[in-house]
Protein 1
Amino acid sequence: MTEVNAPALPGAMPDRLPEGARPPADFDPRALAKTLLRSIRAGTLGTLDRNTGHPFCSLVTLATDVDGSPLVLTSRLSSHTANLEADGRASVLLAQTGKGDPLAHPRLTVLGTFAPIARETAADARVRRRFLARHPKAELYAGFGDFSFWRMQVASAHLNGGFARAADLMAADVLTDVTGADEMVAAEEGAVAHMNADHTDAIELYAVDLLGEAEGPWRISGLDPEGADLVLGDHTARLMFKGRVTSSGALRQALVALAKEAREGP
């Protein structure tokens, strides 16, 4: 989180809490921010209007790269794409929804700079796979010539989890450290395919027994050193590993251990 005397971050709101207000002891802003970043499928994209500089907001579907960087798929026919082409600075608002007052639910604003992913590159293949695993219907148009993937280089984030539950966050607070995890990242695609083909029972156990989600044909859409992204139709869930995973062997052990926990209890 923002350090004393550190340069101001985009979106930062220091010293605005009412006098005497303190975050509850159970408030973990980093964990909540990472959960929102990894689990929200659609959000508000804020770009700078290329004509006047006014804030321009639009609804977009989102996914995340292995390190948690936000990913969007946009058409050159869209105004927000033209804005990004002129100035990549932008923000995305990820809001959890539910019953009652909408403002009672947590939301995260991520700020940074978007850049397009070059086609026919290793990054394009990885980003395309991860995005389409989260949004299968996008397969219908993702290959069109006017569509491209964009990846945000995160500068900062602002979390609002309710009264006295706000936090200014640095990029390192919301992103996943992939340093030294090249083996795990390289093994991700095969591990996801293997789990979805041969271990659907274990994936459902993760969702139902560990996360309290509804029963159904859950699948894994992505893996990273900190956890797994699960999807069931339009529903998503985030499963955290017990510790940081950096190798293919450790990834396999983590998935086996979680399945055992789901079957037998901790």
Note: The mean pLDDT is 92.
Protein 2
Amino acid sequence: MRAEIDTLRARLDEIDKRDKEYKEQVVRLRKVLDEATRLLTRNSADVGAKAAKAEQDIAALQGRIEELSHTVDQETRQSTDERNRLDTRLAALEQTQTKIVDKVAPALPDDREGLWSQAGQRLAGGQRDEGRRFYRVFIQRFPQDPRAAQAYLAIGMSFVQEGKYPNAAAEFQKVMNVYPSSPEVPEAMWQLAAAFVKLHFCTDARALLSDLVKRYPHSPRASEAKGELKSIAKLPKSACTS
């Protein structure tokens, strides 16, 4: 669609250029005619062959000017009709393009609460790509907001729901790296360990769960981490690549 719009605009520019060239040619011919008329007037005493020749040239020029004027008028009418059609087509294409953009990538709210609320609504409604996009914009615009770490968690959990554990692990890791003092860190560690188990990284999962128990012994996830460590220890070797 973008290519078609560019083609239409190029066609309109070509029409404008052609009309300008025709009009410039008429102006040049009229100047020649005026000059020839002045020469004929100055040399009116010599009414012989030169006068006859000048009159013939003037008549030819007048004929050419009339022909060009007719062509310009005809081209102008055609160009106007074509321009109107192209303008209508171009406007329709641009309107369609705007509607597509609005549908595919709806405008983001400017206010913090609206952005946060719509991000959650989209994830809850199954629009995971849109929900993630809204959460990422929230993090970008309001990195110091206490909910920014929660946004990373929400993005990570949406990837878990899709079975995209490498993507999920990357988001949980961001909570720990970017917001190491946030209250969401224990949850991020727990979810990251769970993603590692799904990826068969048992050694990394055990290390992370052990660190969770040590650093956050009073966290609700601490007791669960102890139980998960026992479960991982019972896994067959084939279930772990590391």
Note: The first helix runs from residue 2 to 42.
